[in-house]
Amino acid sequence: MLDFSSLLLAAALSGICLSVTMFAIWFTAPKAGFVLTVACGILVLVAHVILFWRYTKDPDPLLCQIVLALLSLGFLILCLSAMQYLGVPGYRRAVAPALAAMAICAIVTFMGFDGVGFIITYTTVTALLSAIGAMFWINGSQDRRILLVVSFLSGTCAMSFAFCGVVLLTKGQWTLAIAPDNWAERLNSVVAVACMTGLGALTLSLHHLQAQIELKAETMTDPLTGLLNRRALTSLYGERSFGPFMSIVMFDLDHFKRTNDVYGHPVGDQVLCRFAAVIKKYARPGVDAFRLGGEEFAVVMSRMTDEKAYDLASKIGVAFGAEIVPTQLGKLRSTVSGGIGFGEASGSSLDNVLTEADAALYAAKRAGRNCVISRKRMGKAEPIKPALRSA
Asked: At a CB cut-off of 8 Å and minimum separation 6, what does 263 contact?
């Protein structure tokens, strides 16, 4: 059976392997900042374990203070890495209480009450681990199975540290002068090795999952405008059935080729970005915007009547017509044409609605551009209403 020293050295070896792995991952993917933070936190804990092992052989008051400070600091860094990964704001909420607890621990330990220092440190670590588990469970938006395991391991490790503090508290061991050695400490060593190894493996899984999400986002996003692209349109709506309260507006910037020829492609890019910004202003639940390619855009609208869809498309055209792009040749004001396709009560496919919207768009161009046309309104012989008038 392993003795206490062997358990500590096993924990240190496990931590070193984990931190080296994390640093290697970070070097290959520098954007994964939370991986670097995890690696730093584990290294601090490794330093704690090694010094704690030394403290069991040769107790020293100053070494005791360093050991306890490293334990709290290591788990504080891991807590910050969890906040970093999950995008939880307010690092100060974790840092300030932890540093205050570390300061109090240092004071009482300096006064000779090292047992109280251990109790304070174990309480701090329990709180930090509990916070990590709660944050992953509450704020996580990825695979809930992974997050459940992270929460379970964090909670289990927190309980093992809590047991260590409870044993010292119930025995009234306010002054130790040596490293605590009891059943809770031994249990904590085993649990800490197992949980830290498991959390390290899950960190790798979370990094892989985050990389997949970022890669998918990149393939689904137009790099110039930040809008979703045609691939995203197919992914989101390719299998959807478009009912009577769903529609698609196809927009095409008027005379865009001439804009590029006269003003240059950088100005053309500005015009595209301006139109994308206009669409984003009208974004709301049920309204998704896409850049299909070149100067073509599409807006999918859900839970809207024909009239509301037409009004929203017209407002977008009016707003874009008011945009002015400064150029070396003077102020540039562009216009846009739009065509609306609608779903049917019996259900329509994405391709059918796009085909109808495309036909309406070409009708708008034949009508002189700078307008929005709805195929349903044309069927009722309504006049073409311009979305805006050129300045």
From this structure: 327, 329, 332
In the block, tokens 């590029």 appear at 260
Is the Cα torsion angle 276, 278, 280, 285 positive or negative in sign? negative
Nearest to 199 by CA among 151, 271, 165, 233: 151
What is the rounded distance in angstroms from the CA atom of residue 367 to the CA atom of residue 293? 23
349 CA to centre of own chain: 32
Cα(26)–Cα(79) distance, integer angstroms? 18
Both tokens of residue 181?
Answer: 């050695």
Judge contact between 35 and 201, C-beta under 8 A: no
Q: Give the max Cα distance, the chain.
A: 95
| DSSP code string of 223-288 | TTT--EEHHHHHHHHTT--B-TTEEEEEEEETTHHHHHHHH-HHHHHHHHHHHHHHHHHT-BTTEE
| pLDDT tens digit at each of 391 positions of the chain | 456 667 677 777 777 877 887 787 778 777 777 888 888 988 998 899 889 888 988 889 999 999 999 999 999 999 998 888 888 888 888 999 999 999 999 999 999 999 999 999 999 999 999 998 888 888 765 556 667 777 888 888 899 999 999 999 999 999 998 888 888 988 887 887 777 777 766 666 666 666 666 666 678 889 899 899 999 999 889 889 999 899 999 999 999 999 999 999 999 999 999 999 999 998 888 899 999 989 999 999 998 888 899 999 999 999 999 998 998 888 999 999 999 999 998 889 999 999 999 999 999 999 889 999 986 655 433 333 444 433 3
CA-to-CA dists, residue 11 to 14, 51, 383, angstroms = 5, 12, 78
339 token code pair: 């065509």
The C-alpha atoms of residue 30 and residue 37 are separated, in whole angstroms, by 11
Query: Is the four-CA dihedral 326, 329, 330, 331 of positive or negative sign?
Result: negative
**CA-closest candidate to residue 248, choices 336, 321, 352:** 352
DSSP-based helix, strand, coil % in the chain, nearest 5 = 65, 10, 25
d(CA 287, CA 22): 41
How far apart CA 120 and CA 126 sit, in angstroms, is: 10
The amino acid present at 165, given as its one-letter code, is G
CB atoms within 10 A of CB 220: 17
